[in-house]
Amino acid sequence: MNRRGFASISLATAAGLLLLAGGGSSVNADPRVGQPAPNFTATDSNGKKVSLGDQRGKTVVLEWTNDGCPYVRKHYNAKAMQALQKKWTAQGVVWLSVISSPPGEQGYADGKLANRLTEERGASPTAVLLDPGQQVARAYRATATPHMFVITAKGSVAYMGAIDDNPSYSGDPRKAKNFVDRALTEVKTGKPVSNPSTRAYGCAVKYTS
Length: 209
What we know:
The protein is of the alpha+beta class. It has helices spanning 70-77, 80-89, 111-121, 135-140, 179-188; strands at 13-14, 17-18, 41-44, 49-51, 60-64, 94-99, 127-130, 144-145, 148-151, 157-161, 203-204. The protein contains five helices and eleven strands, in the order βββββααβαβαβββαβ. The protein is globular and about 40 Å long.
């Protein structure tokens, strides 16, 4: 498998879920590296409104998540996602975990469940956004969990795609090349992101019609 380019990733089934999510909904424009990130306002797990526009001046990470997805579980069971969250939120990065599963689908969570999952897993996002109607997911054409975006303090997309170079639901993610960690390091030091776009892998984001 060519991990560097994700040129050929076979479809596989794990717990009834898709390995690679190619679907999505149509929107007027795709998010593009170097261009302004689509703005949004969503409700977090504590009932607070969170707007991307309010984060101007801070680097933002968007992490699409689904607690039932084996690809997501790989990162959380190894404590890799939590470590990444803690590392960068401690440096002032705003980390927003986004749950876009609709009611009745795997991964759906209301605020109470989302907060319980955060506590049980020792996760450290700045906030967990509830997106059961997929408004945020549609704006970003999120296809998979985890699908990752890094947005600069000026509001432009610096990175979009996979979290790392191991598109599998097995293996130790701590040994993989983490694209998000590298992108955040480069953004912090004022360098161009060396690999700004990769192909997201994971379980399909569940879109309603």
